[in-house]
Amino acid sequence: MVTSHIREQASLEESIGHVFASSELLERALTHSSQAREAEMLRPGSGERTRDNEQLEFLGDAVLGLVTTEELFRRFPEFSEGQLSKLRAHLVSKNHLISVAEQLQLGKYLRLGRGEEKSGGRNKAALLVDALEAVIGAVFLDAGLEPARELVLRRIVLPELEEFVSTGRAAKVTDYKSALQETLQAIARPQPAYELVKESGPEHQKTFTIEARLISPLSGQVEFIGRAQGATKKTAEQEAARQVLEHLASLPPNNGVEG
After folding, report:
1. What is residue 50's predicted lDDT score, i.e. its pLDDT?
2. Which of 172, 196, 218 is the last residue in one of the domains?
3. At 233, which CATH number?
4. Is residue 188 domain-shared with residue 83, that is, in the same domain?
5. What CA–CA distance (Å, rounded) separates 120 from 60?
6. For this structure, is 163 an active site residue?
7. Both 46 and 151 in a single domain?
8. Please, what is the Cα angle at 257 between 254 and 259, to 5 degrees?
9. Which domain range does residue 191 map to?
10. What is the reported pTM?
């Protein structure tokens, strides 16, 4: 039994790329509160508390956020704060983390109470994501930030970013005009009209004001105007397009769509 437990721990350590100096930290990261409370019930009156993974999850969540934010800041210097926030939100989302936890097969390593075991705890998304964050926290406590950073980048951030860039989704985050064009095509609405409405400043430092006018498919009239300034026409057009996208996102489903 002990040998099997050691073998399982070694298998997980290989998957995450870190061998623990303190095996107790890894064990704690995999211990759900249901198992901890059951263990305490077997020692009535002892007052000894069995530690679960909730505090490590709290720590790991913070490390995950820091490492992800730093990598995005370094990798995408042209992104705005809003764009970086949107991408970070995806990378640390439960939907993304559950896929990573499943790849690591964390479910089979969890230490669960009998009730949680019977209710399918090994396949519960919340438990798996919590365990993944706890493992990150455990690596941080065991060896510091760099090994924790390596785990986060190698298993969580970089594979998704590589797909993000290779599929063109990275370009779409900054290319609001293309995103707006695709959105309007998908809902069978006319493309916007971009118009330069103002040009000011000296020749070497001009400011351009652009309007992106969204046409109603029902009346043919202007429904919404995105208006933005920029040091170049392209920059102003992108911001105006972003405003139109936000307007479309705020509409009820199928609002103004023909058909």
Report:
1. 67
2. 172
3. 3.30.160.20
4. no
5. 24
6. no
7. yes
8. 105
9. 176-250
10. 0.65
In a domain, 108, yes or no: yes
pLDDT at position 27 is 92
Q: SS3 string of the chain?
A: CHHHHHHHHHHHHHHHCCCCCCHHHHHHHCECHHHHHHHHHCCCCCCCCCCCCHHHHHHHHHHHHHHHHHHHHHHCCCCCHHHHHHHHHHHCCHHHHHHHHHHCCHHHHCECCHHHHHCCHHHCHHHHHHHHHHHHHHHHHHHCHHHHHHHHHHHHHHHHHHHHHHCCHHHHHHCHHHHHHHHHHHCCCCCCEEEEEEEECCHHHCEEEEEEEEECCCCCCEEEEEEEEECCHHHHHHHHHHHHHHHHHHCCCCCCCCC
CA distance 91 to 156: 7
**Which phi and psi (to 5°) does residue 222 adopt?**
-70, 125
Task: Report the alpha-carbon distance of residue 241 to residue 92 in Å, rounded.
Answer: 27
The pLDDT averaged over each successive group of 10 residues in the chain (259 residues) is 68 94 93 70 62 92 96 84 82 91 92 80 88 97 97 94 75 74 86 93 89 90 92 87 85 57
Catalytic position from the list 52, 61, 130, 237: 61
Please say if 195 is a catalytic residue: no
Look at strands 222-230 and 207-215 and give their pairing.
Answer: antiparallel
- Strands of the 193-200 sheet, one edge to the other: 193-200, 207-215, 222-230
Torsion of the alpha carbons at 114, 29, 87 and 157, rounded to the nearest 10: -120
By residue count, the chain amounts to: 259
- Please report whether residue 256 resides in a domain: no
Q: Which of 133, 142, 211, 237 is catalytic?
A: 133
Structure tokens at 62: 């913070």
Task: Quote the number of domains for the chain.
Answer: 2
Centre a 10 Å sphere on the Cβ of residue 35 and count the other Cβ atoms it contains.
22
